[in-house]
Amino acid sequence: MNQVRASAKEIVEQYGRDGRLSGESLALAEFGVWNRTTPGMLLLGTGYLAALEDPALVERTLESGNEALAMILKDDDPFGALALTDAGAELSWDQWMAWIWAYWQSRGMSPVVLDELFEEAEEVWAETADGGDVTRPRVRDGACGPWDASETPVPADTERIDYGVMKIPRLEGAETRPLYAGECIVGVIVRFGGHAFSLQVYRARGGPVWDTVRPEIINGVRDQGGSAEDAESSFGAEVRAQIPVVKDGQRMLQPTRIVGCDGPGWLLRGVYGGPAALADVVDLRAHHLFAQTVVDLSAWEGKADASEEITNLEVRWPTTE
Questions:
Q1: What is the pLDDT of residues 292-306, one digit of tens each?
Q2: Where are the alpha helices (DSSP H) in the chain?
Q3: Bridge-partner residues for 195, per DSSP?
């Protein structure tokens, strides 16, 4: 058994001993920063395959009120459903593990049954990842934003924090900090899972600008001694870069994904940095933050310089979050 499957089995066994997932198991089940397969993704596939053999599992999930899990179980492509929706933000790992544990008990707790499920789930996920569905663009496509405040319907079932020109989804367990330019707050930094994702809004005077801004970003990174290139992911057109930074007195290259999306009169830009920032499959939390942000230019109280094509807008920091 490979290390990924061994870790997944360890999570199942820990849940069975304690009746709930430990902090260590939750960290091990991290599923948002993979290129191929992680223990968490393997567990998602295992639960789905168990449901195929036990259809009543879907009905019990619906009765529990966990629509995110029910959607994954009902969908013909559970991995695509998870990556191409915001369900990952609502996933209850403890409930998911309860289903796997119940299925395993119903099969007599045979290690062979669990091992076979893990192996099949790994094969299914590899095929899905290679198919490209989880990496195709999912921004402003009718189902995902970023949204303009004037657009209807902006999904109302996502709780957002109001920063004036930006309304950003609340992400459980994340830490938010202001992004400063001098004494002005011009963006929001969201920290989660060892990564940081900063969001900024620009007023675009002459229409879409992301295609013209990207080459400037690439040249700027290269001038600093880093590397950068055009790419595409579920964020759409983006820049993948290695940016020089100084940490603990040492110069190093920071893996960084720079994303952007044009809206009516604005550009939303995100800078996502951290160890797995350049993974082929985007962290679901990062995609959720970006694609469910609402931009509201009417909340901006400043004035744009008519000579500037784009203007970075100040955000209003909330008194409470």
A1: 999 999 999 777 666
A2: 3-18, 23-28, 39-53, 56-64, 67-74, 78-83, 93-106, 111-131, 210-223, 284-291
A3: 192
